[in-house]
Design brief:
single chain; mainly alpha; 5 helices; 120 residues
Length: 120
Amino acid sequence: MLTAKQAGDEHQYETAKALEELYRFAREILRCEVAEEPLHAFTLLGLDSAGLRHASHLPPGGRHPIPSSDMSKLALTLNYLRTQVREVEICAVEVERQDLIEALNRLSSAAYILFLKVIG
């Protein structure tokens, strides 16, 4: 939510709205884990799981950008968010819930897609 607030403060309203969507999805992942319920099919940023994977693996121009200090604070914050989701994904392996592991992987993909849009 801090990143969504930052996006709004920087007049990146589409990014702020997308981050609120990612937040709701993270809450759904947590709910499913706590309730020991399966996570059903989902979309993020208008993309299904395969679409998120594809979009995050093929950035515009075909090259994955390396974060640097000349990027905006919002871009760097999005990259940090992506790395934090990846850390949670690694921890989720211990839970042995493949649905949640894949969901976290796609959540980090969605954060990466937003990063790519912001650096544009």
